[in-house]
Write a sequence for this structure.
């Protein structure tokens, strides 16, 4: 039996590509974890804007967001964990509405119907009432809303440490790695 955990990392067109890049770097060092990367068109645009046009580094298989013949699009082969990082308000709204109109929205839909972990990392400020209602709907449906809001209590001295501390929290939430001591409140 294959004991490898299948993790879908869905990157959408919100600001915060650095979190997704760091997630890929951190998971590349973990044993028994297969990362399947999906990106929206806008995610690629934001990524280039924020991180440049260099290669995306990590250990992952790249899946196409306009295909539905992916294993994780079916409840019979659902992912172990799906993380939408960062999650645009557009994608969040589509998942809340159950549109299932691209692979990311469908895979998220499958996670919810199968009662499997779905972690959404929205990045927007301020929120309007529609955003807040969509987040409530998704929470009621079983998703975890984990806003891209890193803490400062570990006194990060640079941006990389700040990003890393937040990604470490996501890895903990996803059940992939315990939170390191330096990122805990003490
Ligand atoms: C540079 C840039 C930054 C953006 N930042 C955000 C953001 O932080 N949050 C958000 O919800 N949308 C943001 N958007 C808008 C989304 O990309 C847009 O709503 C898009 O339709 C989302 O599509 P997707 O969900 O398919 O990726 C940004 C767009 C660009 C070009």
């Amino acid at each position: 039996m294959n004991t490898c955990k299948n993790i879908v990392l869905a990157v959408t067109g919100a600001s915060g590509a650095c979190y997704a890049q760091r997630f890929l770097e951190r998971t590349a060092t973990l044993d028994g974890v297969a990362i399947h990367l999906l990106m929206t068109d806008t995610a690629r645009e934001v990524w280039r804007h924020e991180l440049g046009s260099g290669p995306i580094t990590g250990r992952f298989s790249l899946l196409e967001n306009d295909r539905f013949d992916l294993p994780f699009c079916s409840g019979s082969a659902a992912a172990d964990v799906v993380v939408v990082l960062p999650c645009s308000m557009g994608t969040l709204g589509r998942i809340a509405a159950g549109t299932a109109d691209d692979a990311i929205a469908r895979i998220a839909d499958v996670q919810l119907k199968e009662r499997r972990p779905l972690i959404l990392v929205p990045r927007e400020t301020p929120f309007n009432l529609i955003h807040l209602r969509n987040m409530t709907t998704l929470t009621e449906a079983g998703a975890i809303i984990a806003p891209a809001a890193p803490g400062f209590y570990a006194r990060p001295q640079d941006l990389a440490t700040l990003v890393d501390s937040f990604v470490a929290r996501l890895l903990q939430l996803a059940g992939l790695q315990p939170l390191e001591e330096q990122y805990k409140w003490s």
About this structure: Residues 159-173 form the longest helix (15 residues).
